[in-house]
Amino acid sequence: MSKNCVLLLLLTLFFLVKTAHSDPRATEAALMCTNETALMADRQTFVANFLATMDAVTPQIAVQRYAAVVNGTGNNTVYAFGECMKDLSKQDCDVCFAQCKTQILRCLPFQKATRGGRLFYDGCYLRYDDFNFFNQSLSAQDTSVCGGTGFGGNQSVFKDNALRLVRNLSLVAPKNDGFSVGFVGQGNETVYGLAQCWEFVNGSACDECLADTVERIGSCPPKAEGRVLNAGCYLRYSTQKFYSNNTSTAGNGGRRGLAIILAVTSAVFAVVLSIFSVAFFTRKKILKRRKGTEVWLEVLIDSIFKH
Ligand SMILES: *[C@@H]1O[C@H](CO)[C@@H](O)[C@H](O)[C@H]1NC(C)=O
Ligand SMILES: *[C@@H]1O[C@H](CO)[C@@H](O)[C@H](O)[C@H]1NC(C)=O
Ligand SMILES: *[C@@H]1O[C@H](CO)[C@@H](O)[C@H](O)[C@H]1NC(C)=O
Ligand SMILES: *[C@@H]1O[C@H](CO)[C@@H](O)[C@H](O)[C@H]1NC(C)=O
Ligand SMILES: *[C@@H]1O[C@H](CO)[C@@H](O)[C@H](O)[C@H]1NC(C)=O
Ligand SMILES: *[C@@H]1O[C@H](CO)[C@@H](O)[C@H](O)[C@H]1NC(C)=O
Ligand SMILES: *[C@@H]1O[C@H](CO)[C@@H](O)[C@H](O)[C@H]1NC(C)=O
Ligand SMILES: *[C@@H]1O[C@H](CO)[C@@H](O)[C@H](O)[C@H]1NC(C)=O
Ligand SMILES: *[C@@H]1O[C@H](CO)[C@@H](O)[C@H](O)[C@H]1NC(C)=O
Ligand SMILES: *[C@@H]1O[C@H](CO)[C@@H](O)[C@H](O)[C@H]1NC(C)=O
């Protein structure tokens, strides 16, 4: 019964998001989960701390577009960090983040007490972990994601444009509050790009992080899309102009729709959380009926999150 309820809410949500005028770029670039899990004895504390950080993240995002939260003590401390790309409007930032927050549950912080996860969207970013990673610039999980169809025109010109662009972005961003957008080339050989370092990755750490993205992105052309997803920064190029160079865009009649989207997203998040929390805190009962309930939960998670 509550399963149908969640699905209905989600359908409403996707419908609303599709018809909204804004572009929160709530498209997934990558989800990375650690394979470390909390010890059995610590799970209850870990889950409570995780929930507390997720609760605290949203109000900070609403005020300053990034959030850094620490909750818990000792081995069960949970660190969470989130930030929007700086070209998003405040409304788009809130929408992107609300969706990002529901999707990070795919790392299974409740079922498996997974101790860390990162979710890169093209408009926002959320990570939680069991150590202070707030100013970390590089990590072993750093990766590039290339996509789209191959570029159809002159490939050597395209590659040259892409590399010139990312080099320029990586030099400009550290001196420009950790952010830059731009394009190189003409006509259908134009390449557009965006680079951003996270809030606490500034100065030389931002330099270092973006220099690494320039190395990694080289494998992407002639693909039409390239992204590098590092611990401390994000870089993307595309044949489409995906960024906005106008942050002061007013919500043209989208405010009501936005309020509804946020309300529905929060409701979905709350419902999902309460299902998982109940499931978690009555774990002993579940274990006895494992084949029934846990399989049911996994089916639910799949149906919610694989869209
Ligand atoms: C975690 O994943 C890494 C890489 O995928 C692997 O090398 C390591 O053995 C895994 N650790 C555990 C405890 O499963
Ligand atoms: C962790 O979250 C709980 C619940 O919101 C709160 O009472 C507590 O003060 C937080 N602890 C820290 C260290 O922020
Ligand atoms: C924290 O975890 C480590 C290993 O995982 C363990 O050796 C240590 O005793 C733990 N510390 C506390 C305070 O639980
Ligand atoms: C990163 O933060 C830690 C703890 O807050 C601090 O000790 C360290 O010096 C910082 N590193 C850099 C490179 O800023
Ligand atoms: C794009 O560039 C290629 C090669 O320069 C050219 O053949 C093609 O006509 C161009 N397409 C458009 C839509 O301009
Ligand atoms: C691509 O452009 C370069 C420079 O304009 C030119 O030298 C080269 O012949 C072109 N290659 C193709 C396949 O058109
Ligand atoms: C980056 O490109 C812009 C626009 O083409 C140019 O004005 C600027 O000098 C370049 N900066 C660097 C560091 O290359
Ligand atoms: C920003 O937008 C204006 C107007 O559309 C455009 O002329 C300009 O080239 C854009 N700048 C960048 C860096 O994309
Ligand atoms: C980086 O930013 C933080 C806060 O945003 C600030 O406290 C710190 O001094 C900055 N570090 C550098 C090297 O600019
Ligand atoms: C930038 O914003 C101004 C006013 O807010 C608007 O008139 C203009 O069309 C916008 N440009 C772009 C490229 O969105």
UniProtKB/TrEMBL annotation:
Catalytic activity: L-seryl-[protein] + ATP = O-phospho-L-seryl-[protein] + ADP + H(+); L-threonyl-[protein] + ATP = O-phospho-L-threonyl-[protein] + ADP + H(+)
Keywords, comma-separated and alphabetical: ATP-binding, Kinase, Membrane, Nucleotide-binding, Phosphoprotein, Receptor, Repeat, Serine/threonine-protein kinase, Signal, Transferase, Transmembrane, Transmembrane helix
UniProt-recorded Gene Ontology molecular function terms: ATP binding; protein serine/threonine kinase activity
Listed CDD domains: Gnk2-like
Signal peptide: 1-22
A Pfam family assignment: Stress-antifung
Gene3D superfamilies per the UniProt record, alphabetical: Gnk2 domain, C-X8-C-X2-C motif (3.30.430.20)
Name recorded for this polypeptide: Cysteine-rich receptor-like protein kinase 3
InterPro entries: CR_Ser/Thr_kinase, GNK2, GNK2_sf
Residue intervals passing through the bilayer: 258-281
Keyword Translocase annotated: no
Gnk2-homologous domain location: 27-133, 140-242
